[in-house]
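Quick illustration for those who missed Monday's session on complexes.
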Amino acid sequence: MDILDNLNPEQREGVETTEGPVLLIAGAGSGKTRVLTHRIAHLIGTQKAKPWQILAITFTNKAAKEMKERVSDLVYGSEDMWISTFHAACVRILRREAKHLGYDNNFNIYDTSDKLKVIKDCAKELDIDTKKITPRSIASAISNAKNQLLSAKDYQGSNLYEKQIEKIYKMYDRRVKANNAMDFDDLIFETVRLFRLNPDILERYQQQFKYIMVDEYQDTNHSQYLLVNFLAKGHKNICVVGDDDQSIYLFRGADVANILDFEKDYPDAKVIKLERNYRSTQCILSVANEVIKHNEGRKGKNLWTENCAGEKPVFFHGTDHIDEIQFIADEITKEQAKGRKLSDFTILIRANALTRSIEDILLKRDIPYQIFAGTEFFNRKEIKDVMAYLSIISNPADDLSLTRIINVPRRGIGNKTVERLAAVADEKNKTLFEVLKEDADGIVSRGKDKIKQLVMLIENLQEMSQYLNVTDLLDETVNRSGYRNMLQSDKTDEAKIRLENIEELFTVTKEFDNTHGGNLDEFLQQNSLASDTDESEREDSVKIMTLHSAKGLEFPVVFIAGFEERLFPHIRSMEDPKELQEERRLCYVGITRAKEKLYITAAQSRALYGRVERNKVSRFLEEVPKNLIEDKSIKKYSMDNLYSQSGPQRANVNSFKMPQKQNIDMAYKVGMLVEHKKFGQGIITEIKSLGEDQKITINFEKVGSKALMASFAPLTVV
Ligand code: ATP
Ligand code: MG
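Prediction with adenosine-5'-triphosphate bound:
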């Protein structure tokens, strides 16, 4: 089979235009990602490129994994290709080149909670009140600066607030570097710096990457954009694909302008548009189009599909969140009885906090589920502790990890002692581990022996790491450190769960050892980048995930829960028109994940964040003409009763009345002549049953063939 066979002409053009810059801008589900996978296969198949000459950037690790799988279905050699996220590609480059920037090549990667901890420490030391400026807001200010490539040295605050950020940023930066570590933003920042400072290294990579591709280009930020541009300057064979309507990472500094500027940066770029949607039914697509229409300044796209009209998206308004989720559970059970698998269903939510109530009910109903949004495995305390041990074994300069485990399990090294040791480390410009080894005797009076034992433990494990695989090393670590013992002797349920989680970590290391050969550095590197969408999928369970993490994915049946003002659009985004537009794009992303069936649900009241919230139905629902959605809530409740309390809410619901159902007992037959209020007269050419309804295809004299739902079409038999 030829690789090009399964593509339409525009997609084919995207695949075959291998030389020179290409911009593919197209709506959801139009096959952009498919073009990239086929493009890679085509480059290999026609021997234009060796696998390692291809760099393909995706947005999540899950997407990278999927892309690799899709490519390996088409050609050999996918394991040698650089198919990964920006972050993972940068880690791979930096592991080789970090020494040019003054880091050790096995630097550590700080995740969000590590980052917050360091920020808190800095703020404390600088006497900055974290009640007034929260660590989170400081973290995001630093993040923004880095995404704009503004280094700690160059950052200059102009007002009081920024001046405080400046102080923290500078101290934070020193600390992280002194620990031989980088945070997520540094990975990109430092790679750009590497290339700026070392033209010869840049040239090597420019030569290597003959073909560069970026998926979800609309969500790249300034530093990522520069990075791609640096690399692409060699061969200029760069193909970026994206959809301006799906840009949802403004808050992380993503800049839709990047997609619009591409033509400026590469005036000879070939621009390709795809307009046919292969994913969703027309009914779903229409709803998506109606919502996104309300955004301003769009490039404007005309998405269409040949997929059948399908079932109307359903809206359900529960009395409370329990009622809402019960409905979802009911529908899942009903659809399951019709032969659907549980893995066909995905529940999308705007805020993580909603997962709790969904979980509660699915548990009670015995419906297996998997969350792709909650506390990630690698963020659990016990996993972080054990990983910190592994980390310090691999990188003795990792002060943060050492501080984390220095007294876990308790070994009598108190906070005061640790502070004193850290101060000496600062003063002498040494790592904490060096101080423990070399200076502790002179600093600490009690607990000297404990410190010696810890140093010995770490050194022993370091030695073992030379010949043990990760699983065996992990086993030695949890035994020798006393971590396992600590949990085993604690008889609480919590300790049992922690122990189970550690056992689960063995599953992870075993798989890693089997597939990757057991190198500790590589293991740490891989898992420091694991994100919430990366947990391996369990067979046959309902998925629950955030709208953000669903980007690029598709599912047969999608529920968007919590479709209420203040939740979606999120309360933080309601005042700012720009952010509101971003919420709308997020809604568009959510709707377009559905292939066959879409449900939108809301609750009139819900217990959330420890109080009862009463929200109006989301404005995004009001933006959809009523006839495009079937309101199932009306069957259970009388809308008027529910909304008797307040004016605006009443108007809101009234504007969303059920369309008047026609009586479909009327026996339509193929060949019958009928008259439609708008389309005039036509002959019925086909009738299909759809549940209680019928889909009838009519060949109208004036407008040609149309498929209509019998219950809603204003038809009379002539
Ligand atoms: P998104 O904007 O959500 O990322 P996308 O544009 O990347 O979407 P894909 O995920 O590549 O779209 O494709 C959507 C679906 O349509 C996939 O299931 C894909 O296999 C299918 N598809 C795309 N093009 C074709 C085609 N020419 N023939 C058959 N199926 C196709
Ligand atoms: Mg895609």
